[in-house]
Every structure is written in structure tokens, then in C-alpha cells.
Design brief:
Helix content: under 10%
Shape: globular
Largest sheet: 4 strands, antiparallel
Distance between the termini: 6 Å
């Protein structure tokens, strides 16, 4: 999987984790419609005065028994868990699980990353050319559901920015169970299409909305800055940052010192040096100032590992 109107409580998604503690990656389970879930790299916890909602985005494999061809033909399904008032007793809370979509797309899906639940980035490989394509999906408000907002940095990469926070509202003022809402579809905009050496392996969006990190399948890490008029820059390759060829997952977080970081990690169990990499941006200006490389065991005992965080999680992107 990753707003502060009320004290934030942590609620995990109702799904099987794939082993990356804190990532809320969904794997090996099934969505409410019975589709096998591949993975999700986004889970957002939003606290409201009276409600708490956990939204995870997952990618189903397609209709049961079918492969990626069915997925591409039918479109992308997104899976969510919410906590809202119980329909039979509004004084009590209830979990609601539901699917949204399918939403069409024209490439072989690889990964997605979310700046907040209403703004996600979807990456894949174009058939024939092998080009990487990344789209931004913006979802409109849905009456009866929670709609989220996140501050966007006023300047681009190179200018320090405050850490952004999530906020939100209950659209229409009255909660409606997901299955009773009118469906909405995202506005899909291409932010990048071009060649990434080896193809895209994973992406992570900057929570302040200035850039995307793109990990290639051959272990190169790129920054796609200025998403309105993107510029692609190679940050590191395997020779400069050993361990990148092992990595298959990235996510942003804020460490215990209040520093914006990105985790670049291989799926455990991996005992190799470089199985976990932490990128630290000391001024939150979009420029990586420090890199820290660990074995997975060493990472688990480092101050960057989420189980060692001691506050109430209110500054972390889940």
C-alpha cells in the first residue's frame, strides 16, 4: 500500500500482506468480486471527526481463470476498503469493501502509485514499441463518499517545500454505502511516454506532486520532474547505487526525524546487501541528499523501518 482532521488511528487493509511490512501490498487474496488480486502499493488512512476510512488500490488479474489479455480488454479494476457508519445501526462502524471500474487503458499494466486516493499514477508498457507509458488518473467527487485533497508544492524540484498533508470531506454530507453510490470514472492524462532502458519495474509519486521516481527492470532509477512538462533524468544505476537490480517496490514515507524519504526495496526474504535502500531528501526539495543501503535484516533494525517509529503514524504515507 501509505489527513489530520482528528487524531490518526492506524487501520490495516483487510487483505493478505505480501511481506513488505507497512506497504499494505495486497497479494494472494481475492477482491470482493472474486478476482485474484495481484498487488497494491497504496493504502491511505484518513481520519475524520466521526469516521475513519482506509482506501487501498489493487489490481485484479482479470476474470477468474483469465490472464492479462482479459485484464487489458476489460480495463483496470480498483479495490477499496472503507470504514463508515453501519447501515443497520449508524452509531456503530462497519467495513465496506468494493470494486470500482473497470477503467480502460491501452498498455500492459506494470504498476501504480497514488498521491492520494483521488489522484493515482498508472504505468505500463506499450505493445509493439515497448515504450513506457505513465498516466495520471484524477477521480471526481462521488456523492456519499469521502473525497481527498493533498497540497501541491508551489515550486518545482530544487525549491524546498513543506511536507504536504491529506485533507478531505464527506461529499454531500451523508455517508452512502459504496454499492449505492453513482459510479464515477477518472480523467486519464498521459504524463510520459517514451523509452526506459529495460522497461519500467515500479513507480513512486512524490507526495508533493513535483515528480515521479521510475525504477527500471535493469536497475536504473530515474526522476521524471515537472509533471506538466516532464523531464526525465537518470539519478542512479546499479554501479552508483548497488542493490537497485534487486528492487521491485518503492514508496514514500517521512522518517522519525521528519525527513521526506523513499524506500526502494526487494521483496523479502532477500539477504543480499542492498536489499533495502532509503533515499533521504533533507530539505524536501526533490533532490536526494543521502542514500542508505542495508541488508533486509539490518533495515528491520534501522531507524528507518516503520516498526521503529514511535509516534502515532500521523506524518507517514501508507
Amino acid at each position: 500500500m501509505k489527513c489530520h482532521i482528528a487524531p490518526l488511528l492506524f487501520v490495516s487493509c483487510l487483505a493478505a500482506c505480501n511481506g513488505n511490512d507497512g506497504d499494505m501490498l495486497i497479494g494472494g487474496g481475492k477482491s470482493p468480486g472474486g478476482y485474484p488480486l495481484l498487488s497494491s502499493n497504496m493504502s491511505t488512512v484518513i481520519a475524520y471527526p466521526d469516521q475513519l476510512v482506509t482506501i487501498a488500490v489493487a489490481v485484479p488479474e482479470g476474470a477468474p481463470g483469465a490472464g492479462s489479455t482479459t485484464l487489458e480488454a476489460e480495463g483496470l479494476l480498483l479495490w477499496a476498503t472503507e470504514i463508515g457508519p453501519d447501515a443497520s445501526d449508524p452509531s456503530q462502524e462497519a467495513y465496506y469493501q468494493h470494486e470500482a471500474g473497470p477503467f480502460p487503458y491501452s498498455y500492459s499494466f506494470v504498476d501504480l502509485s497514488a498521491r492520494h486516493p483521488a489522484e493515482i499514477y498508472v504505468a505500463g508498457t506499450m505493445p509493439g514499441t515497448g515504450d513506457t507509458k505513465i498516466e495520471k488518473w484524477l477521480f471526481p467527487p462521488q456523492v456519499g463518499g469521502y473525497y481527498t485533497f493533498r497540497d501541491t508544492a508551489v515550486a518545482g524540484v530544487g525549491t524546498p517545500s513543506p511536507l504536504s498533508t491529506l485533507s478531505g470531506e464527506l461529499v454531500g454530507g451523508t455517508y452512502v454505502a459504496p454499492e449505492n453510490r453513482s459510479p464515477v470514472s477518472p480523467v486519464q492524462t498521459t504524463v510520459f511516454q517514451g523509452r526506459i532502458g529495460g522497461g519500467v519495474e515500479d513507480i513512486a509519486v512524490d507526495p508533493e506532486g513535483r515528480f515521479l521516481l521510475i525504477l527500471s527492470a535493469t536497475g536504473s532509477l530515474y526522476q521524471l520532474s515537472d509533471l506538466a512538462s516532464p523531464t526525465l533524468t537518470l539519478l542512479y544505476d546499479e554501479s552508483a547505487l548497488p542493490g537497485l537490480t534487486l528492487a521491485d517496490e518503492m514508496r514514500p514515507f517521512v522518517d522519525a526525524q521528519g525527513v521526506r524519504c523513499f524506500q526502494v526495496i526487494a521483496s523479502p526474504p532477500n539477504v543480499s546487501p542492498g536489499a533495502a535502500i532509503v533515499l533521504r531528501d533533507l530539505e524536501n526539495d526533490g533532490v536526494i541528499d543521502e542514500t542508505h543501503t542495508f541488508t533486509y535484516d539490518a533495515y528491520a533494525s534501522s531507524p528507518y523501518y516503520h516498526l521503529n517509529w514511535t509516534d502515532d503514524y500521523s506524518t507517514y504515507d501508507w
